[in-house]
Write a structure and sequence with these properties.
The complex is a heterodimer of chains A (417) and B (475). Chain A is 20% helix and 35% strand. Chain A has 417 residues and is α/β, with parallel strands linked by helices. Chain A folds into three domains: 1-119 and 255-325, FAD/NAD(P)-binding domain (3-Layer(bba) Sandwich), CATH 3.50.50; 122-254, FAD/NAD(P)-binding domain; 328-417, Sandwich (Immunoglobulin-like), CATH 2.60.40. Among the domains of chain B are: 85-143 and 220-309, D-Amino Acid Oxidase, Chain A, domain 2; 376-459, BFD-like [2Fe-2S]-binding domain (Arc Repressor Mutant, subunit A), CATH 1.10.10. Chain B is built from twelve helices and 22 strands. Chain B is globular and about 65 Å long. Classes of the chains: A alpha/beta (417), B alpha+beta (475).
C-alpha cells in the first residue's frame, strides 16, 4: 500500500488540470494514474487546431494544448504513472490499479479525482440493421488510425452523426484524399459546434443531411454501401425516402458517454441526463472526498471548459485534504423548460465561492432568454441570440445570493422562448 | 501425405468430432473455409443446452440431444469452458398453452429428459421474478443450461490440435475426386484422405453433392438476435422459452454464461445461406415478442445485434450416417437446434459409425483436457499480482470494458489453432465485446496481431477474406 494525499484517475486534460491545481494549492503527494502510454488523453490524436482559444487566448492543436500541461506537470513533484489501469476504488478511497512494472498497485488516498473521460457510442446501441463486415467504426477510432497509426481507414466515407469528432474527421479524411460523401444527422439540427460545420463541411462542400439516418449496412466482408433514409418528427425512418449510397466506410459520431464504470462500482449514482456523477459546486460527488471533472462528469464541447472545471475539482480536493472544504446543507439545481440538466446538481449554502451553473438546452432557440429562479423569484435573466444543444451554456450565481436562499431551496434554470 | 480422415467444417460439430477422433492412432485433418473456427451457425445461435423435450420421440435428434446434454458438463469441465446449469422454462400464457406444456412434459419424459416438472403461476414467479404477470404456468427443465458455443468449439479444436489433428484454415473444398482415396480440391491446395466427414453445416448439401449425393435437402433459416448489456444480464434467471410453433422454439430470453442477456431468434427461411444481415423487421419482432415473456426488457440496453443461419433439414431430423453414393464419406448434416446440445453425443456417435470401417485404436499419449486460459478478470488481487510478476504482459489492460490484458491476447494468438484476426481475438478473450464494442481497444488489437504474426497492420482483418480494417499508409 502506498499513501498519497490525492489520487487522480486519468491523465487527460481533466486529470492534469485537477492535479496541477491541487499541487498549486500546496498538496504534496499527488499521483496521476493514466491508462494510455502517454499523458494527454484523447487530445493526443486531435491534431487539428481550435484548442485553447478561451483558456490560453491562442489557437493550439490538441497535442500542443496537452503539451503545455504535461510540461507544467514535469516541473512539479506529482507522480505520474502511465500505462496504468485503475480497476477499483474502494469505499475508503483505496485505489487498485495495475501496470507492467509495478504489477498490482494499492494506493491509499485522502481524496480521489475521477477524470476518466468519455467513450463513443458504438454501432450496437443504434440497432442499424444489415451486415457486420469491416469498415464500420466510430469517428474517434478512425481518427486514431489516421493521426496516430498513420493508416487510411477508408476511401469512400459516409459519416453518421454530426458530433464534433465526426465533423473533424470529415475534413481530415478529405485532406488525406478520401471522398467524404455526406454527413447524416438524425436530428433536425447538428450536435456539433457551428465553427466546425463551417470549417469542416461547408469549406469542403460536404453535404450535411439533417433528419436523415443510416437504416442498413451492406457488404459481407468489407462495407460496400449504406442505405440512408429521411426520418419523420418521431425520428422514425420514412421507407419511401430510402437511398443507397456506395461507400467502404461508415464512421459513427453519434454521441459520447461518460466512462463511469469505476464510479458505478464505487456506488455513486449517476445523473440520468449527464450520465455523470452528481456533484456539488466543487465537483465533490456523493462519496466524501471523491471528486469528478471533465467528460466523465458531463460531455464538454471545448477542452478549455474541461480545464476550468477540473481546476475547480482540484481546488475542492485540496480544500478537502486540508480540512477546509465546506460540506453542509445544500440547495438543489434543476433544469426545466428546455434546459436538459445542470452541473453542479447541488450547492453548499455556505459556499465560499461564486458558482457557475453549466447546462445544455434540448433544442435550437433564437432570441430566447435564460431565466434563473428560486422560490418563485427571479435571480437573473439573460438574453441569448442563439441557443443550441451542441453548445454548453452557463450562468453565474453569486455566493451571497446562494447564502440568502432558505434551506431546501431549488434553483431552476429555464429557457423563455 | 494421405490423411486417414478429413473432417470438413470447424463448427461445434466438426470441432468436437475432430477432438473425439484425436484420441486414436489415425491422422486427422480439420478443414475450415474461413479464417477461424466457429464461423458459421456456431457463432450465432442461442447458446442453449436444451433439455431434450422438443424433438419427437424416436428421432435421432431426441436421442442425441438427451445424450449430448448429459455429456456437456463433463466436456466443458475437461476443456475449461464455462457451462451453467441454469435450467429452462417454457412459459404458457393461456390454458390452451398449458395443455401444450403438458404434451411437452410427456414427450420429455419419453425422451428420457431428467429434471422435468410442470409448475404453476406462483412457483413460476418465485423462481423467475421478472416473468410477465400474464404467464399462467411453465414447464421447468432443471437439466437445461447455457454454454458459449464458439468458446466450446475453440477449446475443442485447440485440444484436438494438441493431440495431433491438423487444422487447416482458409481451406474451402471446391471439388472432390474419388480414387483409392478422396482428393479434396481446396482453396488451400489438394488434400487427400481415406475418409471424409461432412460437417459443413449450411453447406453440407453442397459438399455431399460433390460425391454425387444429392439427398440432403436443407432450408437455410435465419435467426436474428439482440445481445444486451451485462447491467441487465440478471433480468432472467432461466432460459425462458415461449410455446413452440412450426418454425421452431420461438423468441427466448436468456442469460449468457458471460453475464449478458440474449434475446431472439426470429426464424425466417431465406435463399442465400450466407445472408447474416439483420433486418429492421426482425429486430422489431425480437423486442416485441421478448416483451411478452419479460416486460422489462429494453432494446436501449442492446450492445449489438446479429443473425445466424441454421441448416433446417426438410426431413426434420439430423442426417448422420454413411453416404449412399460414396463408401467412405460420412454425412453429419441438418444439425439445427438442438445441435449444440447434441454435439458432444454426435461426436461419439460419429466415431462409433466410423469404427465400422476404420480400425480405431486408442493413443497412449492422449491429453483429454485443455489447459484453462488465463482470465485476469476472474482473478483476485493476489492472483493478479502473482501473474504479472511472472509475465508483465498481464499487467497491461488492453480492453478496458471487459478488463482483458495484453498477455491474454498474446495467448489467444499463440494458442493451437489460435486467433488470426480481430474477431478471433474477440471470441477467445472477449476483448472488444463490451460496452464500447472495440472503440478503444480495436486498434490496439490490430497492433498486437500485427506484431505477433509479423505482418503489417493493414493486412490484419476483422474476420479473414477481404474484411480489412485499414488500407494503405496516409500521405
Amino acid at each position: 500500500m502506498t499513501n498519497f494525499d490525492l489520487a487522480v484517475v486519468g491523465g487527460g486534460p481533466a486529470g492534469m488540470a485537477a492535479a496541477l491545481k491541487a499541487s498549486e494549492e500546496g498538496i504534496e503527494k499527488i499521483v496521476v494514474l493514466e491508462r494510455a502510454e502517454t499523458l494527454g488523453g484523447i487530445l493526443e490524436q486531435c491534431i487539428h487546431t481550435g484548442f485553447g482559444l478561451h483558456y490560453f487566448g491562442e489557437e493550439l492543436s490538441g497535442p500542443e494544448y496537452a503539451g503545455r500541461f504535461i510540461k507544467l506537470l514535469e516541473d512539479t513533484n506529482i507522480v505520474v504513472k502511465t500505462d496504468t489501469m485503475v480497476l477499483d476504488i474502494a469505499d475508503d478511497n483505496t485505489v487498485t490499479a495495475v501496470n507492467k512494472t509495478d504489477g498490482l498497485l494499492k494506493i491509499s488516498a485522502k481524496a480521489v479525482v475521477l477524470a476518466m473521460g468519455c467513450r463513443e457510442r458504438p454501432r450496437g446501441a443504434l440497432s442499424i440493421a444489415g451486415s457486420r463486415g469491416a469498415g464500420i467504426m466510430t469517428a474517434g477510432t478512425a481518427q486514431k488510425y489516421v493521426n496516430i497509426d498513420g493508416y487510411m481507414p477508408g476511401h469512400e466515407v459516409v459519416i453518421l452523426g454530426s458530433g464534433d469528432i465526426g465533423l473533424i474527421m470529415a475534413r481530415r479524411m478529405t485532406l488525406e484524399g478520401a471522398k467524404v460523401k455526406m454527413v447524416c444527422e438524425l436530428m433536425p439540427y447538428s450536435g456539433g459546434l457551428t465553427r466546425n460545420i463551417v470549417q469542416c463541411l461547408e469549406d469542403f462542400d460536404i453535404p450535411l443531411k439533417l433528419s436523415t439516418t443510416v437504416v442498413a449496412t451492406h457488404g459481407k466482408e468489407r462495407l460496400e454501401g449504406v442505405t440512408i433514409a429521411k426520418v419523420d418528427e418521431k425520428l422514425q425512418p420514412i421507407p419511401e425516402t430510402a437511398e443507397y449510397v456506395p461507400c467502404d466506410t461508415l464512421m459513427l459520431s453519434v454521441g459520447l458517454i461518460p466512462e463511469n464504470e469505476l464510479s458505478k462500482n464505487a456506488g455513486l449514482t449517476l445523473d440520468r441526463i449527464t450520465n455523470g456523477p452528481k456533484v456539488d459546486e466543487y465537483r465533490e460527488t456523493e462519496h466524501k472526498g471523491v471528486f469528478a471533472c471533465g467528460n466523465v462528469l458531463q460531455v464538454h464541447d471545448l477542452v478549455d471548459y474541461v480545464t476550468e472545471e477540473s481546476q475547480i475539482a482540484g481546488l475542492g480536493a485540496a480544500k478537502f485534504i486540508k480540512g477546509e472544504k465546506i460540506s453542509g446543507d445544500c440547495i438543489g439545481t434543476n433544469g426545466i423548460n428546455g434546459v436538459r440538466y445542470i452541473v453542479p446538481q447541488r450547492i453548499n449554502r455556505e459556499t465560499d465561492t461564486d458558482v457557475k451553473l453549466y447546462f445544455r438546452v434540448g433544442a435550437v432557440y433564437t432570441n430566447a432568454s435564460i431565466v434563473v429562479e428560486a422560490n418563485g423569484e427571479t435571480i437573473l435573466s439573460k438574453k441569448k441570440k442563439k441557443l443550441c444543444p451542441g453548445e454548453m451554456e452557463y450562468v453565474l450565481i453569486k455566493k451571497d445570493v446562494i447564502a440568502n436562499l432558505p434551506k431546501d431551496s431549488v434553483i431552476t434554470v429555464r429557457v423563455e422562448a | 501425405m494421405t490423411y486417414d480422415v478429413a473432417v470438413v467444417g470447424a463448427g461445434v460439430v466438426g470441432g468436437l468430432i475432430a477432438r473425439e477422433l484425436s484420441r486414436f492412432n489415425i491422422s486427422v485433418a480439420l478443414l475450415e473455409k474461413c479464417n477461424d473456427v466457429a464461423m458459421g451457425t456456431t457463432k450465432a445461435n442461442s447458446a442453449i443446452v436444451h433439455g431434450g423435450f422438443d424433438a419427437q420421440n424416436g428421432t435421432l435428434k431426441a436421442e442425441l440431444n438427451v445424450k449430448g446434454t448429459a455429456l456437456m458438463p463433463k466436456v466443458c469441465e475437461k476443456l475449461h469452458v464455462p457451462f451453467k446449469n441454469n435450467g429452462s422454462l417454457v412459459v404458457a400464457f393461456s390454458d390452451s398453452e398449458m395443455e401444450h406444456i403438458k404434451v411437452l412434459f410427456d414427450r420429455g419424459i419419453k425422451n428420457g429428459v431428467p429434471g422435468l416438472s410442470v409448475i404453476d403461476r406462483d412457483e413460476l414467479r418465485r423462481i423467475e421474478p421478472n416473468i410477465s404477470e400474464k404467464a399462467v404456468g411453465a414447464l421447468l427443465c432443471e437439466s437445461a443450461g447455457i454454454v458459449c458455443p464458439y468458446e466450446l468449439t475453440i477449446a475443442a479444436v485447440e485440444n484436438a490440435v494438441t493431440n495431433g489433428v491438423e487444422f487447416i484454415r482458409n481451406c474451402e473444398v471446391e471439388a472432390i475426386e474419388q480414387g483409392e482415396a478422396y482428393t479434396l480440391k481446396t482453396t488451400a491446395g489438394d488434400i487427400t484422405a481415406k475418409f471424409v466427414i461432412n460437417a459443413a453445416g449450411n453447406f453440407s448439401d453442397k459438399l455431399a453433392s460433390m460425391v454425387g449425393d444429392n439427398s440432403i435437402d436443407l432450408v437455410p433459416r435465419k435467426g436474428e438476435y439482440y445481445l444486451l448489456d451485462k447491467s441487465v444480464g440478471n433480468l432472467a434467471v432461466h432460459t425462458i422459452f415461449q410455446c413452440p410453433n412450426e418454425m421452431g422454439k420461438g423468441i427466448l430470453v436468456t442469460p449468457t454464461v458471460d453475464g449478458n442477456l440474449l434475446i431472439g431468434p426470429t426464424a425466417k427461411n431465406i435463399e442465400d445461406k450466407s445472408d447474416t444481415t439483420t433486418t429492421p423487421e426482425g429486430l422489431a419482432e425480437i423486442v416485441e415478442k421478448a416483451l411478452k415473456s419479460v416486460p422489462i426488457v429494453s432494446q436501449r440496453n442492446a450492445i449489438t445485434s446479429f443473425a445466424g443461419v441454421r441448416a433446417h433439414p426438410v426431413c426434420d431430423d439430423f442426417i448422420i450416417g454413411w453416404c449412399e453414393k460414396s463408401e467412405h464419406f460420412l454425412n453429419v448434416a441438418g444439425v439445427e437446434s438442438p445441435g449444440l446440445s447434441a454435439a458432444p453425443a454426435i461426436a461419439v456417435y460419429v466415431r462409433e459409425i466410423l469404427s465400422e470401417k476404420l480400425n480405431l485404436t486408442e493413443k497412449s499419449s492422449y491429453t483429454e483436457t485443455r489447459e484453462a486460459p488465463v482470465r485476469f478478470r476472474h482473478m483476485n488481487d493476489e492472483e493478479r499480482a502473482e501473474l504479472i510478476k511472472k509475465n508483465s504482459a498481464y499487467g497491461r489492460i488492453v480492453c478496458r470494458c471487459e478488463t482483458i490484458t495484453e498477455g491474454e491476447i498474446i495467448d489467444a494468438i499463440k494458442a493451437p489453432a489460435g486467433a488470426r484476426d480481430v474477431d478471433g481475438v474477440k471470441r477467445r478473450t472477449r476483448a472488444g465485446m463490451g460496452r464500447c464494442q472495440g472503440g478503444f481497444c480495436g486498434s490496439k488489437v490490430v497492433e498486437i496481431l500485427s506484431r505477433e504474426l509479423g505482418v503489417p497492420m493493414n493486412e490484419i482483418t476483422k474476420f479473414g477474406g477481404e474484411s480489412k480494417i485499414i488500407y494503405e499508409r496516409t500521405k
